[in-house]
Model the fold of this input.
Amino acid sequence: MEIMRKLNQDLFGNLRIFCTRVVSLGNGIVRRYCKLWDFQSLNVAVGIGSLLFCLFALVCVYFYLFPSLSPVRHSYEIVSTPRNGSISAEKCNVFEGKWIQDESYPLYNASQCPFAERGFSCLANGRRDRGYTKWRWKPKKCDIPRLDVQKILGKLYGKRVVFVGDSLSRTQWESLICMLMTGVDDKRSVYEVNGNKITKQIRFLGVRFSTYNLRIDFYRSVFLVRPSSVPRRAPKRVKSTLRLDLMDDISKEWIDSDVLVFNSGHWWTPTKLFEMGCYFQVGKSLKLGMPINTAFRKALDTWAYWVENMVNTNRTSVFFRTFESSHWGGKNRNTCKVNRRPWSRTNGRDRSKISDNIVKVVKQMKVPVNLLHVTRMGAFRSDGHVGTWGDNPSVPDCSHWCLPGVPDVWNEILLSSLLNG
Ligand SMILES: *[C@@H]1O[C@H](CO)[C@@H](O)[C@H](O)[C@H]1NC(C)=O
Ligand SMILES: *[C@@H]1O[C@H](CO)[C@@H](O)[C@H](O)[C@H]1NC(C)=O
Ligand SMILES: *[C@@H]1O[C@H](CO)[C@@H](O)[C@H](O)[C@H]1NC(C)=O
Done:
């Protein structure tokens, strides 16, 4: 819709300038050549003629742009109606807003949720300040509806929700389970289907809410595309490759779902790729010199094609979460200082090439996909990271978030969008 609006503005803007010129040119011609006779009427006639011509042109352009005259709704915008229930003509971009203190938060206690992994439970790991758990995201033009767990559990009855991506995706998965568990009396009715514990390398975790016949699954696929073995005659430094033209081979497990939430981004770095001997490959050909940004774009194109052709978007609501801001500081971006309060400004952390690529690809897709554009809201939250209250206090962490915390808000937006949709 944004593109249309822009195009619309540009076209109509240009036409308006053009029309003004035509009208004044007409007047000019008349004035220059008809000076002898004061043909006021001719002047007016030429003016009206030009105006009519322009009106005609405008109408043509309008019908060209909106052939069906039906409102075009592009799915990538998550819009929300105001909390008071009025249908506002003005749309609300829920990702534009600010953090405000709210004593009614947090939404759950991680120590009472068996699915919040210890590494993210900052309070359990000795974090003393609790202010970071008491912030609500307030979109500029609307409110995110207050979490109504019973309503959500009803809506999700019999459904399968699937998260795919890296550890940030696992955090959102854990957060959603903890949020929903606050509405479940018998905690034992919620369990991992294989009895597995949450670990970093595990490829699949599935949690079942048996009372609601609801599944909330997580698949670890940090690149979304397929890791592969080294082709013959490759240089020695190549230890593995990433097939940018093929989806991860577990992708077939994701298709049969009602909600599908993707992310990828934190692993697309030289340290996690080239320095580990992992290089890009398309078809049979190694792409040794391909920049990471280009490769990420190719991987996203592969993902988009997969969604368009494999996922029934009549059934499945598809989401892609953009880059989750990190707050590494220092010259080499390797120091981590967790504040007590959010930053008042984004300090440039709201910009991300990863997110730009995701936005571009999603906007061009032929099927509805929702963007969870969390980059900007996270940029303020230098107070929300795990820091030294994670698995390993000697290695501070300014990428992952404490639970409860910022990922809960991603889920509030996800859930409100599901309730609206
Ligand atoms: C509902 O909220 C919107 C936006 O906050 C406001 O413009 C509108 O006047 C409100 N309507 C009522 C009936 O309170
Ligand atoms: C969370 O629950 C634990 C164990 O029940 C309790 O000791 C702790 O005080 C609770 N934390 C908060 C912030 O309420
Ligand atoms: C989805 O719905 C549309 C419109 O109702 C229909 O034309 C299309 O065939 C459906 N696609 C699938 C895969 O069911």
About this structure: The chain has two domains: 2-65, 97-420. The first strand starts at residue 97 and ends at 101.
